[in-house]
Every structure is written in structure tokens, then in C-alpha cells.
Specification:
The complex is a heterodimer of chains A (about 425) and B (about 230). Chain A is an all-alpha fold and about 425 residues long. Chain A contains 17 helices and no strands.
């Protein structure tokens, strides 16, 4: 480890956001905070009057909140999972993006289950899920897996940040009250490094099955129900693939924005976006494959109830959304990412934004058409989200962004000690 | 042990909806009005479904009264994360209102879509207040409710029978819908008693159950419409 003064000087670009808060910071945080406050008002409104204030009704008993639940949990997948896989495979280019990815995971994972709180008829009794646990219910599996994943991800993020926190502790005396307890007395001794190494390897390996299990059980909330186009064996892997897909897209977007805002051009280089773009391309193809398999099997089997849902999506009242999804999730990203010429920072960012919207639509199209066209053909419904639901969604997105911004003001968004370590290793390699 | 079941003769049903009204009165189900009913906020513990097949002149119309099927293998009970719904020993799929937290997974997993959620706190016009049935448990907003074969009536009948040291007699207890049906299209009774009317009718050649292929084994049987003219 190099001494703190030198490190701080060298990584000035990464550390400067921690001390400076200019006009853009306030321009971003104040509106975002207002949106969060507004959504809090909307929640109180809904809590007081009842869920009738949403657009839901019989038989559409689940809607926006469940869509956002799946969407945010999906986003949470890329971060730690990608970070862990890249670490295990020793992909050298990963270092500058891992921290951002892990942060995205933790905050998305906090945002996802919040939707369940909104969705409950009696939100205040949420803890009964733990108190009166009925383990036959897929929701309990969800609860268990998400909690495990959340704890693992927070640990993962935190453990790999300890050396950086120690640096901050020495660097910013006025924030010692925060950094000192968090740094756990890290001084960079050989023993400490050995423990950190062992712990991070363990967490890397542990987090992968947990991450896969989380989105699998999220899919099973639908897959275990005998409803048309939900009751599908492909749902587990389909959801996991979709989750990683949307997650990578968010990482690319977050990395591109951080790079721009905090002037991290030296660290987040085109090569990183190129490689992430290639990962995204892989997931584009995988997503297409899964979607094709799912829909083709459904229509070929032509079960009466399934076909009703299928046509509602394919050519019925959801057809605009369906084809928008196909366009945003496959056509646009594929065209951009397949060509090396367009696999630039801007290109991958556009592709990611497209994927993100497309994947949200995908979740919408999984949850809602099945409920409006249930198995018994007599109960037919329609769904239009109300202002409450839009407010909650805006509040969640704003809260998520706000959390990342605030995080970047307290902790470095690029892992310093790993950058340093890597540089040292490569220097040694060239000397030999 | 009883095993309560219902038989609905579709030949006799005239589609008058008296069962729907009676159920509403008996179980204190609030009236939502047309606007909210269109938004899917109305509750029908028993609903009258009409189905029109074909176009003029080749039209076929039928009515289907649709209560909870009280499945022997209910898909709704197992998905509840807090075990707020269960099949009681007499085969009635019951909802424990104070336990329910309004997850609504039971609603979405019911293949017959006969579970209803309280989107708002129930309310009645002033004149109705005194007409509410004191025997049924009140429901608040944010929980799920459903047909329970008028379980309060069954409970009363059981207590009475126990006092007299006997089983409930055939026809001694019937839900409000069965009681009110003017064309006597609905039957209710103990399926475990081979001599009961429902037991016999459920074994009729005309008997069928909705979506039997799902393996939910409903305890509501329908009697098929007869052919008037074999032509």
C-alpha cells in the first residue's frame, strides 16, 4: 500500500466528489427529494383510503407494484453477481466498475421489496410474514431468499470497502466519527489483508447461488400459480436471465453517468463499456432465445386459456406494448451492440436505456395480461394505473437515484485499494 | 364428520340473481354502485355469470351461478404467506379475516376467480345499517374475503344438534342462496352422507364440475343442461 497522502493525490478525481457539492448536486438532489416526499404523500393517501385508490380491481389483483418489485429485484442482480463472477474469473478490466455495480445492487434490492409494502392490504402487518410464516407459500421463499441476498450484498459491498474507508478515515479528520468505526481498525497489515482476501473470496462464491435463487423464487411467485402463461417451467431461468440483462444495463448507465459527472474518464475507459456491451449483447441473445422458446411453446401447445393470453399480448390490447418490448429489448440493443463501431460509450448507453424500458415492459406483460384474461373466461378485467401508482414508481426511481448520489458523496465510487493493488501487480509483472 | 357440498342444476336456473341478492344481505356485502363495479371493486360471494355463444339466429345463452368451489385441493390456501386461509375439517375453504394481511396471492391463484378483496372500507347507506346481519364477522379494508357456505348458519345448526345429541339433519342448514332460489336450482348438504340429496345428485350422469382437469376437486357440482330436442 502506498501512503495516504500520495494515494489521495493520485486519485484526486475519485475523491473530490466526497468533498465538493456544487450546483449540479443540489439541482439533482432537491427535485429528487421532492419526488420522494410526494410518493410518501401518495402512500399515505393510499393507506388511508385503501388500495381502491390504485387502478387495481377484480380480477387484476396484482399490478404496478408487482411489476416494479420484479423490475428492481432484477436490477439488483447484475451488480454483485457480475462483480463476483468477474472477480472469480479474474477479469482484469472489472476493477473500476465493481463498486458501482455493488452499490446498484444494494439500493435496487432495498427498492424492490418496498413495493410489497405498498401492495399489501395491511402494510403495517408486513412483519406477520415472518411471524406467522407459512413455508408452503412461494412468497415465504421469496422473503427468505431476498433477505439472505440483501445481507450478503451489504456485507459484500462493505467488506470490499474497508481499506478505502480506512484511507478516508485518515484523509478526512472531520468525518472520523463515521469512518473510524466503519474501518474496523484497518491498517493494511498482512494479516488483515489475508483475512480480507479470504472473506471476499468466500462472499464471491456464496453470493452467486444466492443471487440465482433470488430471481428464481421471484419467478416462482408467478410460476407456481396455475394461471395461463405463468405456470411455466422456463420461468426460473427466464427471470434470472432477464434480471442479469436489465442489471447490466443499469450498470452501464450508472457508470456512464458517474464518468461524465465526476470526470472519471481516466478510470472508466471505452474498453470497459466495450466489454460490458459484449456482456449485454450475450444477454440480448439469451433473452431473445428464452422469449422465443416461451411464446412458441405456448402457441404451439394451444391450450385454450394460454392462447387467450397469448393473443391479447401478440395482437390484442397489449400488442403495442408487446412489440415495443420486442423492439426495445432485442432489435435496438442487438443492432447497436453487434457492431464494434457502435459499441461505444454513447452506443452502449443508448442500448442500455432501451433495454431498461423494454425489460420493464416485459415484466408488465408478464404480470398483467394473465390477470386480465384469467383461466375461467367469465372474469375479464382491464387495468389502468392510477396517479398513486405512478407516484410510487416515480418515488422509487427517485429514491434509488438519490441513494446512489448520496452514497457517492460519502464513499468513493471506484475501489481505490484494488486499483492500487492491480497496478502494483502489473508493475511487478513487467519488471519480471 | 360432515363434508359440505353444493349442487347447482343449470336446467332450473332462470338467471334471476336472487341468490346474489340473498348472499349480499346475509353476509353484509356492501353495494358498490355501477362505477366501482366497473372498476372491479364489487364483491360477489356468489356471482351469476351469463354466457352468450354464437350470433343470431344461432344463439345459445346460459346462466351459471358461481360461488366458491370449496375445492378439496384448494390452490388458494397453500400460497398464503401467513396461513390466513385454510380448508377446515368439514371441507369449507375459510378465510381468517384478522390474520389476512392482503397479499392477494390467493386471489390470483384461484382458477375460478371467486375470491374478492376489500379495495375500500365497506360502507352502507344509512338506512341499511340496521339491516346488517349480526351473525357474520365484519371485514375491514385491505383483506380478502370469499363465500364460506354461510358458515355461521352451519355453526349454529351444529350447536343446536350437539345440544340434542345428534347429527345435523338433511335440509336443516342451507346457505342463503340455496334458501332463496325461487326455482330450487340449488341444493346443499353433506356429501359424506350417501343418502343426502347432494350426494345422490353429485353422482348423476348430468353432474360435472368446473375445470376438473386442474385437479382441484371442487365440492360444487353442476348439473348439465338437458337436450330438449334431439332433432
Amino acid at each position: 500500500m502506498m501512503d495516504n497522502e500520495a494515494a489521495a493525490h493520485k486519485y484526486q478525481n475519485i475523491l473530490s466528489p466526497l468533498t465538493q457539492a456544487g450546483r449540479p448536486f443540489w439541482l439533482a438532489t432537491i427535485p429528487l427529494s421532492l419526488i420522494v416526499l410526494w410518493s410518501f404523500f401518495a402512500f399515505c393517501w393510499q393507506y388511508y383510503w385503501g388500495l381502491g385508490e390504485t387502478g387495481m380491481g377484480h380480477p387484476v389483483s396484482w399490478a404496478f407494484y408487482l411489476v416494479n418489485f420484479v423490475f428492481f429485484i432484477g436490477i439488483s442482480h447484475a451488480g454483485t453477481l457480475i462483480s463476483a463472477i468477474l472477480r472469480i474469473t479474474h477479469a482484469g478490466w472489472r476493477t473500476p466498475i465493481t463498486r458501482a455495480a455493488e452499490v446498484v445492487t444494494v439500493f435496487a434490492l432495498a427498492a424492490g421489496p418496498t413495493n410489497i409494502l405498498f401492495d399489501l392490504g395491511r402494510s403495517i402487518k408486513f412483519h406477520w410474514v415472518a411471524l406467522h410464516a407459512n413455508f408452503i407459500s412461494p412468497l415465504l421463499w421469496d422473503f427468505t431468499c431476498i433477505m439472505t441476498y440483501f445481507i450478503t450484498c451489504v456485507l459484500f459491498l462493505y467488506v470490499l470497502m474497508i481499506p478505502d474507508i480506512a484511507l478516508l478515515r485518515d484523509r478526512f479528520p472531520r468525518r472520523r466519527w463515521l469512518y473510524k468505526p466503519l474501518s474496523l481498525g484497518w491498517t493494511g497489515t498482512e494479516r488483515q489483508e489475508r483475512i480480507l482476501n479470504r472473506l471476499s473470496t468466500f462472499l464471491c462464491i456464496a453470493v452467486i447461488p444466492v443471487a440465482v435463487s433470488v430471481h428464481t423464487v421471484v419467478s416462482w411467485v408467478f410460476g407456481m400459480q396455475t394461471q395461463p402463461m405463468w405456470h411455466s417451467t422456463i420461468f426460473g431461468p427466464y427471470f434470472v436471465a432477464g434480471a442479469i440483462y436489465s442489471g447490466i444495463a443499469v450498470i452501464i448507465l450508472v457508470a456512464a453517468i458517474l464518468r461524465k459527472v465526476y470526470h472519471l474518464e481516466d478510470y472508466l475507459q471505452p474498453i470497459h463499456f466495450n466489454n460490458l456491451g459484449l456482456l449485454l449483447l450475450t444477454m440480448t441473445l439469451l433473452w431473445f432465445y428464452f422469449t422465443l422458446a416461451e411464446y412458441l411453446t405456448t402457441i404451439y401447445g394451444s391450450g385454450e386459456a394460454e392462447v387467450a393470453v397469448f393473443w391479447a399480448k401478440f395482437a390484442g390490447k397489449y400488442s403495442i406494448l408487446f412489440w415495443a418490448m420486442a423492439f426495445l429489448c432485442f432489435v435496438i440493443p442487438f443492432l447497436i451492440l453487434a457492431l464494434k463501431r457502435t459499441r461505444t460509450i454513447l452506443g452502449t448507453s443508448i442500448a442500455s436505456a432501451s433495454v431498461l424500458v423494454g425489460m420493464w415492459l416485459e415484466r408488465y406483460l408478464i404480470v398483467i395480461p394473465t390477470l386480465t384474461e384469467p383461466r375461467l373466461p367469465y372474469a375479464r378485467g382491464s387495468y389502468v394505473p392510477s396517479w398513486v401508482e405512478w407516484s410510487m414508481m416515480a418515488g422509487l426511481c427517485a429514491g434509488f437515484t438519490l441513494a446512489i448520489i448520496l452514497f457517492s458523496k460519502i464513499f468513493p465510487v471506484i475501489t481505490l485499494w484494488e486499483m492500487e493493488k492491480e497496478e502494483k501487480e502489473s508493475r511487478e509483472r513487467t519488471q519480471r | 364428520m360432515y363434508r359440505w357440498g353444493m349442487v347447482i342444476d343449470l336446467d332450473k336456473c332462470t338467471g334471476c340473481q336472487a341468490c346474489v341478492v340473498a348472499c349480499r344481505q346475509e353476509n353484509n356485502i356492501p353495494i358498490m354502485g355501477e362505477k366501482y363495479a366497473n372498476l372491479g371493486r364489487a364483491k360477489f360471494w356468489i356471482n351469476l355469470i351469463h354466457e352468450i355463444k354464437g350470433t343470431y339466429p344461432d344463439v345459445e345463452m346460459r346462466f351459471i351461478p358461481l360461488p366458491c368451489m370449496h375445492c378439496d385441493k384448494p390452490p388458494c390456501t397453500k400460497v398464503c404467506p401467513v396461513a390466513a386461509t385454510y380448508k377446515n375439517p368439514e371441507g369449507i375453504v375459510a378465510q381468517v379475516y384478522p390474520r389476512c394481511i392482503g397479499v392477494r396471492m390467493c386471489v390470483s391463484n384461484c382458477p375460478y376467480t371467486v375470491r374478492y378483496f376489500n379495495w375500500y372500507a365497506p360502507s352502507w347507506p344509512e338506512e341499511y345499517q340496521r339491516g346488517l346481519n349480526p351473525d357474520v364477522y365484519p371485514r375491514r379494508k385491505g383483506i380478502t374475503e370469499k363465500c364460506n357456505f354461510c358458515i355461521h348458519r352451519i355453526r349454529n345448526a351444529k350447536m343446536k344438534a350437539k345440544k340434542e345429541g345428534r347429527m345435523i339433519r338433511e335440509g336443516e342448514v342451507i346457505p342463503a342462496c340455496v334458501q332463496t332460489c325461487p326455482s330450487e336450482a340449488l341444493y346443499f348438504g353433506d356429501l359424506n352422507d350417501p343418502q343426502s340429496r347432494v350426494s345422490k345428485l353429485s353422482k348423476s350422469r348430468r353432474a360435472f364440475r368446473l375445470q376438473e382437469e386442474l385437479g382441484t376437486e371442487p365440492k360444487v357440482f353442476y348439473l348439465k343442461e338437458g337436450e330438449w330436442d334431439d332433432g
